[in-house]
Amino acid sequence: MFIAPFVATPLPVVRHMLNVADLKAGETFYDLGSGDGRTVVMAAQEFGARAVGIELREDLAKKALAAVQELGIQGKVTIVREDMFNVNISPADVVFLYLTTSANDKVKPKLERELKSGTRVVSHDYEILGWKPARTESFCENPRLGYPSHTIYIYKK
Question: CB atoms < 10 A from the CB of 73, how many?
Fold first, then answer.
């Protein structure tokens, strides 16, 4: 079992990441370590994706589920309270990661084994060692101030 610290991705960064991942309506989106559910909610509401959040921590999974129910998007978003290593992610068209580099290294074999060709993997701030990104870009939440800056890695399987 792997537990990463919860650090929420700011909503402008989530939106930018979903755009650069080229998430389309009807695609299946997975967030490994979905925290409070903000990414899966946005993927469903703004991009029309079928979204699955996998979260091990009970408090965060409950918070995400409450948000999904409050918004009435249960048919588009599923929150799975489970260790990400125990969940089949093969239906994914896009996988979202905000884990550390060492955690990405631990999940890399699962991604290689389960994801179909063409699946996009988008990682916030941390690369997947040994994989060559199709694209890397910096995103600044507040360009006027120049910070905080985020690095987005986009991979294609």
Answer: 15
Cβ atoms 136, 122 nearer than 8 A = no
> Of 79, 101, 102, whose CA–CA distance to 31 is shortest?
79
Q: If you search the block for the tokens 């409450």, which residue do you land on?
A: 66
Where the chain has pLDDT below 70, the residues are: 1-5, 142-148
- d(Cα 65, Cα 36) in Å, to the nearest integer? 8
- Strands 120-124 and 135-140, by their bridges, are unpaired
Give the pLDDT score at 53.
98
Whether the Cβ atoms of residue 33 and residue 63 lie closer than 8 Å to each other: no
CA distance 55 to 130: 26
DSSP secondary structure of 24-75: -TT-EEEEET-TTSHHHHHHHHHH--EEEEEE--HHHHHHHHHHHHHHT-TT
The reported pLDDT for the residue numbered 32 is 96
Strand-by-strand arrangement of the 149-156 sheet = 77-81, 50-55, 28-32, 94-97, 120-124, 149-156, 135-140
Q: What is the pLDDT of residue 4?
A: 61
> Which residue ranges form the domains of the chain, and what is each CATH number?
11-156 (3.40.50.150)
Q: What is the pLDDT of residue 147?
A: 63
